[in-house]
Amino acid sequence: MISFGKKIAILRKEIGLSQGELAAKLKTSVSVISRYERDEMVPSIEAAKKLADLLGSTVGYLLGENEESNLFKDPEMLERFKAIKAFKEEDKEKIYFTLDALIHEVTNRKRYAHK
User: Fold this and answer.
1) H or E segment at 50?
2) What domain range includes position 83?
3) 8 A C-beta contact, residue 52 and residue 59
4) What's the structural domain count of the chain?
5) 89, HSE (Cβ side, Cα atoms, 13 Å)
């Protein structure tokens, strides 16, 4: 598993930011960013949230709870999740049931298409 600091460095480089640019956006120093990336220092919860936002990721990904850094970067997918979140619990359950059925169907089609 990639460390917290390495993930920050990788994401920072992917979006083309220098340590100085990231430090300026986070309102901190380059040495702090450098220490984060070398895993010598851990940011506060608020700083981790800001870092995740600035790097287009999630705190969960940075902390290793979810290895999918791009999971919620798709704006269309994110809008759908936001819409579902606003529904009543009963409606959410119906949507989840339908999604599960569709995912199962597509997965089975792929599985049998390759045989």
Assistant:
1) helix 45-54
2) 75-113
3) yes
4) 2
5) 0
Instruction: Specify the DSSP class assigned to residue 60.
Output: H
Residue 29: how many CA atoms within 13 Å on its side-chain side?
4
Per-residue pLDDT reduced to its tens digit, 31-48: 999 999 999 999 999 999
Q: Which residues of 30-62 are buried (b: 16+ CB within 10 A; e: fewer)?
A: eebbeebbeeeeebeeeebebbbebbebbbebb
Between CA 34 and CA 5 the distance in angstroms is 9
Does one domain contain both 46 and 93?
Answer: no
Do 82 and 59 sit in the same domain of this protein? no
pTM to 2 decimals? 0.59
How does residue 106 score in pLDDT terms, banded at 50, 70 and 90?
Answer: confident
